Each structure stands twice: as C-alpha cells, then as structure tokens.
Amino acid sequence: MHNRLLKIPHFTELKKIILEGGFDAYFVGGCVRDILLDRPVHDVDMVCFSHDYKEFASAVKAGLPSVWVEFKDNIRLVRGRVEIDISKPRGDTLEEDLTKRDFTINNLAMDTAGNMHGDMTDINAKIVRHVSENTFKDDPIRILRTFRFNAQVGFDIAPETLKKIKLEKDMITISASERIFAELDKLFMGAHAHKTLQDMIDTGVYEVLTKGITPDCVDEIAAKSGRGLVFFAASLFRKLDKDEVDKLAVTLNFPNALKKRALRTSEFFKEVAKALENAEEFELRKLIYAYPDEMDDGLKLYEIESECSEMDKEQLEEKIYIVMTQLKYVDFELPDSINGQFLQEIGVAPGPRMGEIIKSIRPMLASGELKTIDEAVVYIKEKY
C-alpha cells in the first residue's frame, strides 16, 4: 500500500505536515478511489477534523508553497498542475462525512499510514451507486458524473441509480453548461464510452442533452473511439443543419474554437467523401491543405461511416491510402507567397477582389494545379 500512497502528488510533504502539525487529516474521495483502482492520481482531496479546514490549508500552503483559491467551504491550493482541495468536513466525524458524499466508490478515506476507512463493497464489485436520496438534487452534474465513471473505469451502474437518473434526468439542465461540457469531454475519452452511451439513451439523459437527436450507427461507433466530445460532436454535426448545430453547441457549451473544430471535421468528412467518389486528386490535395488539423479525425469519421454502410474492407483501405498518398504532394508554404502586397506588385488593385484571388489561388498552388508562382501570375492576369 505504501507504494500506492506515493502515487498521491506531494504525499511525502503532506504526510510530514500532518504528522508534525498533529492534524487528524485524511485523503478522501477521488484520489483514494484512483489509488485502489491503480489509476494515475492527478489531484488531491483532503479533510481535517482536529482543526478548522482553513487552518489546515494554511499549514499545507506553508509547507507546500502554492496559490490559494477560496470557494464556499473549500480551499484549493494550486501547485503547478496539481490541485489540493481541502474541504470543510460534511459532519463531525469521518464516518458521518463519508455518508454525505456522492457515490459509494467515492465515500472512502485513507490516512497517511494507508489505513482504509469506509465501505469498499461497491468498489470491489465494480459498481457505481449513489449514496443518498439527495445525491442528484444537491448537484445535478452528478448525473453525468455517474456516466463518466462508467465510461472511464467500466463499472456497472447500480439498477436503483439508473432508475433514479431516469426520474431526475431533467435536472441536468440546471447545471452550468461549462460543467456539462467538461464531464462529457472526459466521458467520451473513456474506454467504455460506447456502453455508457447506451445507458444514457436508456435513461433519457442523451435525449435531454441533444434535444432529441437520435444516434445512428456512426454516432455509436464514434462514441467508443476514445477521441473525446469534439469528435463525437463532429459525428452529430454531419447530419445537422446550421441552426441545429448552433443549438446543440449552446446546450453543450462548446467553446467557439472547439465548435469550429467539430464543424470543420464534419465538413472535411463530407468533402473528402465526394472527392474520393470522383477520384479527384487535385481536390483531395486542396482539402488536405484547407483542413490540416481536421484530417485525422475526418478520415476516422469516413472510416466509421464506411464501416456502417458495409463498404468492402479492401475498398475502404484503398480509399484511405489514396488520401494519404496525396499528402506528400501538398505544398503548405508556397501558397503564402500570394498575399496583398504581392498582388499589388503585379497590378491588382486593393479591394474585395484581392481576397477572392487569394482564396482561389492558394489552394491551386498547394495542390500543384498551379506549379509555380509564375504560373499563378499568368493565371491571375488572364482570369482577373
């Protein structure tokens, strides 16, 4: 157990602070769960019963210089990438505190010697179960957290917890949308997200979040890809119009950059399918030039869609190969030579037409349709 304790960030320093200060303090919640599951421990949760939680937090900060962030009933000490959360106890004793946590796999505590406190039945049985009748009412985001644990560690969700979620699913809309996004992003990176998606559908949570969008074969396979929420959203976006995309992005609180990434991935998927259908090499190169950051996810989406439409495996591999072989022919640097200053030098007057020329000529240079700047100049003078 001692080797596992060393997984806790700054464990040696924290142990010294606790023992030398005479604090009756414990590691609790997620960090204990992850130790028992032999998963990486990124953040630390602690409670102290012998002193006020702020006094204990001050002692930790003195021993581990860090940034002090104060919330209601909680002090967060940020040291580099590690967050140490020291909370006000949820009862007068450790036992009482543990009964007021969210899930049974989290109502566990450990002291500095590695002694366990709490009921380990569910974590040993690999079951996610809510602790009390108010679990979701106290914090509706726990509905999604249930599924996130399920997706990350592959535990089964207790039948009574699924039943409760089904009854209280609409409360999820009360949660701050940024928290919804954070939980869903972690969920869709989980190794068991496909199974989780089915539980979300069965309980009605998926319908609440997506406003009734029915998942198809592509969505279901995208869910188990482990590529995160942006990739799953790209799968959804491929079948939605602009208004529907905007509404879904608002519901899931997509940051603009990530919404754009998901939308561009779905666009690349659609355009590459057309280009492959017509065997247009120059068009494929232009797409690679236009969507360099979305190419990997876009091709994966194409692969999934082809699998769902039962395309012959050899045919699919050939099509992917065709795209990949075009990559080496794409020039990402030469097109930058076509800019406003260059166009003025060859006699193009400033104005909207300048933007049209840049938008048209750069992809042609990138694809090799125009091989040199001289060819581009001739083309511009003839066409514009």
Which helices and strands appear, and what pairs or packs with what?
Elements: H1 2-5, H2 11-21, E1 25-28, H3 30-36, E2 44-48, H4 53-63, E3 67-71, E4 74-79, E5 82-87, H5 94-98, E6 109-110, E7 116-117, H6 121-125, E8 127-128, H7 135-138, H8 142-153, E9 156-157, H9 159-168, H10 177-187, H11 193-203, H12 205-210, H13 217-223, H14 229-237, H15 242-251, H16 256-277, H17 281-290, H18 295-308, H19 313-327, H20 340-345, H21 352-367, H22 373-383
Parallel strand pairs: 2-5, 8-9
Antiparallel strand pairs: 1-2, 1-6, 3-4, 4-5, 6-7
Helix pairs in contact: 8-10, 8-11, 13-14, 13-18, 14-16, 16-17, 16-18, 17-21
Walk me through the structure.
By secondary structure, the protein is an alpha+beta fold. Among the domains are: 1-125, Beta Polymerase, domain 2, CATH 3.30.460.10; 260-327; 334-383. It has 22 helices and nine strands. The protein has helices at 2-5, 11-21, 30-36, 53-63, 94-98, 121-125, 135-138, 142-153, 159-168, 177-187, 193-203, 205-210, 217-223, 229-237, 242-251, 256-277, 281-290, 295-308, 313-327, 340-345, 352-367, 373-383; strands spanning 25-28, 44-48, 67-71, 74-79, 82-87, 109-110, 116-117, 127-128, 156-157. The strands form two sheets. Strands 3-4-5-2-1-6-7 form a seven-stranded mixed sheet. 36% of the residues are buried. The model has no long low-confidence stretch (mean pLDDT 92).
